[in-house]
Amino acid sequence: MPELLIATHNAGKLREFARLFDGLGLTLRSLDDLGITTDIEETGTTFHENARLKAEGYMQLSGLPTLADDSGLEVAALNGAPGVYSARYGGVTGLAQLEYLLKQMEGMPFHERLARFVCIIALARPGSTDVEFVEGTLPGVIEFEPRGSGGFGYDPLFYVVDEDKTLAELTPERKNEISHRAAAARAARVVLARWQTEGWQ
Fold first, then answer.
1. Most exposed residue of 17, 45, 47, 108, measured as fewest CB within 10 angstroms of its CB?
2. Can you give the residue range of the structural domain that contains 147?
3. How far apart are CA 124 and CA 47, in angstroms?
């Protein structure tokens, strides 16, 4: 069965991709499965650049076709910030990071608080210099205060209009159905199916 490296140490992320790629006849491997401890530095200034760096870097380390993703939050009124710096925005983490974001948006009315989550997936395979990209987005609005206890990161502040809830108020199952990562993974599934018809590697 063809193998695909998912460039992550996160077992939950691997399981989610396994569910989304069910039926493709692939064996998914994580970095831990292959004993890869090297960290590819994310030195890019865009999601595309960081996803490419990881996909190409881990493909070279593993010799396997590789999927890597980079994702984050973009707030329109903040010129797309925090963007690629979502995980370390303001130099703080956890609740302090939510407070930092809210401070940057102080005084903004609801209609000016438009935002979106973005996920870029890069797919690289040995023998090819082409890296293929797919994208998933989830539009929303930044709330005035955190709501909900589920999810992680910015989820308690990210209000999804069609759901009338923040991501942190949704069930994990519903979040995974509508998320930016799920949308990108569905697009990646099309690329992977084509690779199989082309002979995989």
1. 45
2. 3-197
3. 15
> For residue 150, what pLDDT band results from cuts at 50, 70 and 90?
confident
The model's confidence at residue 123, banded by pLDDT at 50, 70 and 90, is very high
In whole angstroms, what is the distance from residue 100 CA to residue 113 CA? 15
Q: How many domains does the chain have?
A: 1
User: Can you give the CATH number for the domain in which 46 is found?
Assistant: 3.90.950.10
CA distance 101 to 2: 43
Phi, psi for residue 9 in degrees, rounded to 5? -100, 0
Catalytic residue among 22, 70, 130, 155: 70
Lowest mean pLDDT across 57-61, 73-77, 88-92, 155-159: 88-92
Label residue 9 by pLDDT band (50, 70, 90). Answer: very high
Report phi then psi at 61, rounded to 5.
-70, -35
Residue 201 reports pLDDT greater than 70 = no
Does residue 69 have an active-site annotation? Answer: no
Distance CA 64, CA 117 (A): 29
- Tell me the DSSP string of 157-174: GEEEGGGTEEGGGS-HHH
Name the residue with tokens 């590789």: 66
